């Protein structure tokens, strides 16, 4: 007797269902889920500016930033949460914007690479990446910089990582800690040593 194949699980459908439950929004009907638009209004503070947007409830935070707000510094790489090119800060905490629905971030403060500094007043991390030549093609750089800024905040707050040994000792950003904390950001050009140097420079250690 043949066994029927297991149904395929759609990642976006799962994420959408989770966001609907978390945000307390009414679930979409089967017809809506199949293709029609279920519009939702969301208020965000993006790079210090209050924005109110209306879009399909299935829009990811990444697409909201790029397609609706035209903040294209945040990159779409794998679109599966593996590469870190889409890293942004939400209330100071780094996330992969491709895995988060915009509808989940009502009232949140979003910071993209554009919000860290300006061309005439770079963020110290941006300046360090230039100084240490910590990029080649540059595609992953916005995510790397946002992640690095969050790493220093994590260390300052005493948040441990998988590489942290003694949880009772003062948090130190040694080489192992740095590489573990930045491991979610992939550089296909292989500029990891220079990236580590840039982050260490801003952290104030050799």
Order of helices and strands: HHEEHEEEHHHHH
Specify the structural class. Answer: alpha+beta
Number of strands: 5
> In the residues, how many domains can be counted?
2
Within the largest sheet, what's the order of strands? 2-1-5-3-4
Output the radius of gyration.
Answer: 19 Å
GO molecular function: 2 iron, 2 sulfur cluster binding; metal ion binding; oxidoreductase activity, acting on the aldehyde or oxo group of donors
Domain 2Fe-2S ferredoxin-type: 40-116
Signal peptide: 1-33
InterPro entries: 2Fe-2S-bd, 2Fe-2S-bd_dom_sf, 2Fe-2S_ferredoxin-like_sf, 2Fe-2S_ferredoxin-type, 2Fe2S_fd_BS, Aldehyde_Oxdr_Iron-Sulfur, Beta-grasp_dom_sf, TAT_signal
Outline:
The protein is of the alpha+beta class and 206 residues long.
Task: Provide tags for this entry.
alpha+beta; single chain; 2 domains; DNA polymerase, domain 1; Ubiquitin-like (UB roll); five-stranded mixed beta sheet
Description:
With 206 residues, the chain is of the alpha+beta class. The protein has two domains: 39-116, Roll (Ubiquitin-like (UB roll)); 124-203, DNA polymerase, domain 1 (Orthogonal Bundle). Helix content is 35%, strand content 13%. The chain contains eight helices and five strands; from the N terminus they run ααββαβββααααα. Helix 5 packs across helix 8. The model is unreliable at 26-36 (pLDDT under 50).
